[in-house]
Amino acid sequence: MSSHVAHHFDDASQQFDAARLGMWIFLATEVLFFGGLFTGYAYYRTLYTPAFIEGSRHLDLVLGTINTAVLLLSSFTIVLAIRGAQTDNRRATIALLAATIVLGTVFLAIKGYEYSVKFEEHHVPGASFSLGETHDEAVEPRHVEMFFALYFGMTGLHAVHMIIGVGVVAVVCVLAWRGHYTSQYYTPLEITGLYWHFVDVVWVFLFPLLYLIR
Amino acid sequence: MNNVQLPKRHYLNADYNVWSWLLSTDHKRIGILYMISLTLFFFVGGAAAVLFRLELMTPGGDLVLSETYNKLFTLHGVIMVWFFLIPSVPTVLGNFFLPMMIGARDLAFPRLNLASWYLFVGGGLFTVWAMLTGGVDTGWTFYTPYSSTYANTRVMLTAIGVFVSGFSTILTGMNFIVTIHTMRAPGMTWFRLPLFVWAHYANSLIMVLATPVLAVTLLLIGMERVLGVGVFDPNLGGDPLLFQHLFWFYSHPAVYLMILPGMGVVSEVITCFARKGIFGYTFIAFSSLAIAVLGFLVWGHHMFVSGQSVLASLTFSFLSMLIAVPSAVKVFNWTATLHKGSISLDTPMLYALGFIGLFTMGGLTGLFLATLAVDQHVHDTYFVVAHFHYIMVGGMVMGYLAGIHFWWPKMTGRLYPEWWGRFSAVLIFFGFNLTFFPQYLLGYLGMPRRYHVYPDEFQVLNVMSTAGASILGVGYLIPLVYLIWSLRYGKIAGPNPWQATGLEWQTPSPPPTFNFDETPSVTERPYQYSPWTPQTAPPPEPELAAAETTSP
User: How confident is residue A132, by pLDDT bands cut at 50, 70 and 90?
Assistant: First the structure.
């Protein structure tokens, strides 16, 4: 029996199944966790449709699109990294994990730039909120503020998940470099990949809801 | 009986130093850690109840101020719901026995299990500290705007404590589901699983799917408080009713977290002490899942008078009636199990029978509350208080005590004193009914909950309730004393004092660190009491064989 099988498991495949199922269940809790914010979004978008369209027009569609591409690419690189472990190609695994970290960081940097622009434009909800020039004169600024509250809440929670993801990928990258993973044992890579795809999928929903439906 | 001895090596004497407990990844030791911390929280929450029951002896507000009164019932609610009832059976008995019942050496993720205890105790102590030093007056439901615009107490700190301990619940649920899926011993098919395991499976589904919604709701409250975002504030374009929807989307399923594991215990105990196979195994198993699923579809019945649309209220009323069906399925099957059984009224059985009676009453009054017209009359009165205490205390606490007594010999290797056990079970039953039955009447007569003064004509019933509460309090203290006493002076139990059939009884008491010397191989359905056939043959060990012969 291999040394990486914990005492309470019978064999490696039982351990692998347990870890993967555990991650899937964790992701189910994450769906419900984000679900509260999506419910809030759906509710207030129905109540204040024109204001939400107005708010959406204040977001940078080009940067949002670039970020979507960056994230989708990072999901591709992490899949190839796992493929690298399955084929015992350690160099490829390390390089592709590093690429995933870079892409994740680029995403966060662009998001940070978008946030800083919003700060300068006083689009952050709170006492100093101001809408500036509007496309639709009739909208109530307070309702656009609700859009931005949800924008910051949802993308902020997503960004927190991204930061954790980059950290976890960095850890497995170091472990891969130390030769922890082989085609016989790559469970941590597999479940890190699942998490990374989940965070990616959340963005796939956020992008159209916040940037595209105008 | 003299030749029965404790096994030489077991999980309790494997190691003695403090770190071997505080850093243990053994599910049995973690279960014990949970039991100790839960007992502490239970008596803190109970002390708050003693204070406000004393206050309610007289119609005037002469013991505490109204603010203090609000903080007391909030303290009681928060502690009892999140730091006793929800974790009670799963984290103590589930942790200890779920792996043993399916023939596993541990839960799938032992380190996560330990981490969840730290999250639980950390969150719990933080909450207790926040509530004792500053207090919270919102009630356990944290309704806005009490918790947002008009909050003047430590709402945020308390919410953080509850938020943190929520992760403990999620990790426990996740651990149980994975364990049941992947760690079953050879031959332990899904329909050979004890019903305790089925109940925990359904319960864990609620844990992992509902708890994150509470987390995000508390996060939104935090955003409102700290960042000034008005998601629930009408002045800023928000809607306070959205809070109630999100909160009850979690909290109604959470009500089933406070009953399903108790139902699991009762299914084990009833069949063992009736010496008869369980009636309708498949129905009981699937009714647990049905409760878990339907539990997510009834949250709107908390908002019948909050401005919800009539159509929504009608739908939620219908669905709430529907969930009575799987609950009734269980009660009828337990009753049918008793029919022509050879019943012995040992302590666990007394608690289990108490559970069935009190749960039935709590469930039936739930139907009153699910009826739109009746709810208009009794909404937010003591009728509601009595209803959910019949479920949570009459049901879940009874179930917990049934389980603690049933498995105490397995956990400690020693028997509790049977006479005292029966005495306190009966005392708790009477104390409970004297406390809460008058509250049904009070609510029906129109006394609203959460007020510390009331009209004079309600005094007699309130005094009865307070008298009952003091009997109940004594009833809870007696087991605390004799169970601790039995650790040293109790009779040695032997591996299977109840002649039960589950895998957990086919190993020494207390069990060895890895539960079984050899992975058991399951050959039988559970609950074959007549003739008695355990789920696996006991291992042929000399000291164990000696113990077997002493069984009645």
Answer: confident
In chain B, which residues have pLDDT < 70? 1-3, 538-552
Contact B192, B522 (CB under 8 A): yes
Note whether A7 contacts B212, CB cutoff 8 Å.
Answer: no
Residue A128's pLDDT band (cuts 50, 70, 90): confident
CATH code at position A197: 1.20.120.80
- Please tell me which of the candidates B108, B229, B246 has its beta carbon nearest to residue A18: B108
Nearest-angstrom CA–CA distance, A201 and B159: 29
pLDDT tens for each residue of B428-442:
999 999 999 999 999
Q: Whole domain around residue A70: which residue ranges? A: 12-212
Residue B545: exposure state from Cβ atoms within 10 A (0-12, 13-18, ≥19): exposed
On the question of a cis peptide bond just before residue B531, with omega within 30 degrees of 0, the verdict is yes
Q: Which CATH number fits domain B22-548: 3.40.920.10, 3.40.50.2300, 1.10.575.10, 1.20.210.10?
A: 1.20.210.10
Q: Which residues of B touch A153 (CB under 8 A)?
A: 220, 223, 229
| Chain B residues in contact with A146 (beta carbon < 8 A) | 230-231, 236-238
Amino acid B546: pLDDT? 47
**B201, B176 in Cβ contact below 8 A?**
yes
